[in-house]
Design a protein that fits this description.
GMP Synthetase, Chain A, domain 3; 3 domains; 5-stranded parallel beta sheet; 24% strand
């Protein structure tokens, strides 16, 4: 499998179950340094295979002295590379190197003031006092031999410490926005302490990915699952850059696309990207497979299974195919709890191109975007010269409208959903909001309510409107779009879409909800 391309410098983030672990990765990437999330308990022998230039130990909900608490391999702390422990990660360093960790007399949750005692290295160029965000109940009354305190807070004598070997810990969370100088602290660790340079850019990623794909594929042939979204389009363009005519893209109309989606996708792909594309109309096949299915996970698995069936049929028609390329992203992997994510992570939902693939897949997978966040994919797409209307398309789920049509998926219900979704996106675009929000779409609920339309009593469907803001889909908030825009969306749907007499607006953030309803 082709994952992330080889890089000159890699920071490994050891994830011990913190809700902020992905944010740490985001901040490191923003500093133009490549990083990967790995389970915190991974043995050093496995970590060493990635040749890390530095380690970051995340926070976590456990206490290091508990019998079942996840532990770092002590060999990782003695490997001679810089280490930064954050919250629980700091306590792990103290625990394993001769310090003491115990329940604190006073817990620290929320804002605190940090008093810097040693401004070298981690706090270089920063104020002597600064606000930080704390979230811990344990504290460190005694630091390990050879360590010195760098900072303190009202309830933490050692809110930061370090030794001469470049092993350091901080009790607060620099990755959250509530620590205003957090990005600067992380950059100091990456640049000053670890000696790394900000060279991981979209351009460098493309060059290395192209080299890796060429090396893996050799003289083989690749089939690319092209959905029309930015992820698969960037993946296809990247693979095309690497191997040219050895790539055949298959665009499957699964019958679960938005209104006029197939026509618009093919126009862009042929007009601007000049890719070798085979169009397959498999709508009946997908709808037949989904008949009677109402469980969201089963829908996802079914869509994934039928996709592969279609690709295998196409591969036989094309000839010998060795590889399948997909636009899998890092958030997909994390939410599906793939093997390279935190051991303590909980599976949220199956993504059709991660957990929805059947066993015994005869293709070798190429997933060149597997360790990228969405904004990084857009940057790669722009660097590849892809058109703006493709690079900035809002995300669309692999299972398509199947997971926005709650309950059984039928042609009749999909027709209602398509028309309602068209209205939502049209109004969002007309009001200049399309690039300001992460996603905007309609959901057809299984509910029917009483209404009055044209002086007649109706008993029709309820449509929910979902509009969210986000940076990477790992967290999201509902968009505060103007009431007048919501009013027009509601009015148009109830007037233009037959079978709908009520529209509701979803004001749930992620967490506790997910962006999609299924």
């Amino acid at each position: 499998m082709v994952e992330a391309p080889p890089t000159r410098a890699t920071v490994l983030i050891l994830d011990f179950g913190s809700q902020y672990s992905q944010l740490i990765a985001r901040r490191v990437r923003e500093a133009s340094v490549y990083c990967e999330l790995v389970p915190g308990t991974t043995p050093w022998s496995e970590l060493a295979k990635k040749s890390p230039s530095a380690l970051i130990l995340s926070g976590g909900p456990a206490s290091v002295y508990e019998p079942e608490a996840p532990q770092v391999d002590p060999a990782a702390l003695k490997a001679g590379i810089p280490v930064l422990g954050i919250c629980y990660g700091m306590q792990l360093i103290a625990h394993h190197l001769g310090g003491e960790v115990e329940p604190g007399p006073l817990r620290e949750f929320g804002p605190a003031m940090l008093e810097v005692e040693d401004a070298e290295g981690l706090f270089a160029g920063l104020p002597a006092e600064m606000p930080v965000w704390m979230s811990h109940g344990d504290h460190i009354p005694k630091i390990p031999p050879g360590f010195r305190g760098l900072a303190r807070s009202a309830n933490s004598r050692y809110a930061a410490f370090s030794n001469d070997a470049g092993i350091m810990g901080i009790q607060f969370h620099p990755e959250v926005v509530h620590t205003p100088h957090g990005r600067d602290i992380l950059r100091n660790f990456l640049y000053r302490v670890s000696g790394l340079t900000p060279t991981w850019t979209a351009g460098s990623y493309i060059a290395e990915a192209v080299e890796t794909i060429r090396s893996m594929v050799g003289g083989g042939r690749v089939l690319c699952a092209l959905s029309g979204g930015v992820d698969s389009a960037v993946a296809a363009t990247l693979v095309d850059r690497a191997i040219g005519d050895q790539l055949t893209c298959v665009f499957v109309n699964n019958g679960l696309l938005r209104k006029e989606e197939a026509e618009r996708v093919l126009e862009v792909m042929h007009r601007d990207l000049d890719l070798n594309i085979r169009y397959v109309d498999a709508g009946e096949r997908f709808l037949s497979a989904l008949r009677g299915i109402t469980d969201p996970e089963e829908k996802r698995r079914t869509v994934g299974r039928v996709f592969i069936e279609v690709f295998e049929i196409e591969a036989k028609a094309i000839g010998e195919i060795d590889f399948l390329a997909q636009g899998t992203l890092y958030p997909d992997v994390i939410e599906s709890t793939a093997p390279d994510t935190a051991a303590s992570a909980v599976k949220i939902k199956t993504h059709h191109n991660v957990g929805g693939l059947p066993p015994g897949l005869r293709f070798k997978l190429i997933e060149p975007l597997r360790h990228l966040f969405k904004d990084e994919v857009r940057a790669v797409g722009a660097e590849l010269g892809m058109p703006d209307d493709m690079v900035w398309r809002q995300p669309f789920p692999g299972p398509g409208l199947a997971i926005r049509c709650l309950g059984e998926v039928t042609e009749e219900r999909l027709a209602i959903l398509r028309e309602a979704d068209w209205v939502v996106v049209d109004e969002i675009k007309k009001n200049g909001l399309y690039r300001q929000v992460w996603q905007s779409f309609a959901v057809l609920t299984p509910l029917e309510t009483v209404g009055v339309q044209g002086d007649y009593r109706t008993y029709s469907n309820v449509v929910a409107v979902r509009v969210v803001t986000s940076d990477d889909a790992m967290t999201a908030d509902w968009a505060r779009i103007p009431y007048e825009v919501l009013a027009r969306i509601s009015n148009r749907i109830t007037n233009e879409v037959n079978g709908v007499n009520r529209v509701v607006f979803d004001i749930t953030s992620k967490p506790p909800g997910t962006i999609e309803w299924e």
